[in-house]
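Let us practice reading a record.
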Amino acid sequence: MRPTAFPLNNNMRSMLIIFFHFAIISKVKNRGTLDILQGVSLVDKKIYVVGLDDEATESKVNDAVKAVAGVSNCVANSSKAQVLVSFDENTAGIEDAINAAISSCGLDVL
């Protein structure tokens, strides 16, 4: 006996389309950017630093690194002496630009 498909009326189809649309968009937004839909290749990188001592410096680093073109997210953590950066690896010279942004805050990149 061949299995039959579950019959869907127009309202059920519309609800499923809306559900999957929001599921995909929320998944993308949780990643931090809508660029995923446009084929951007994001990389997460931990950068260890010296001199990240307080929340004020964390805030400066976050602002400086987020200003770099191609960076989608940055979280500086003084307790771990590291900066976690999500960025588009296809952007030319982005890693050097990120390191320069961190150094401009008075930190030494290891």
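A brief commentary: The chain has a mean pLDDT of 80.
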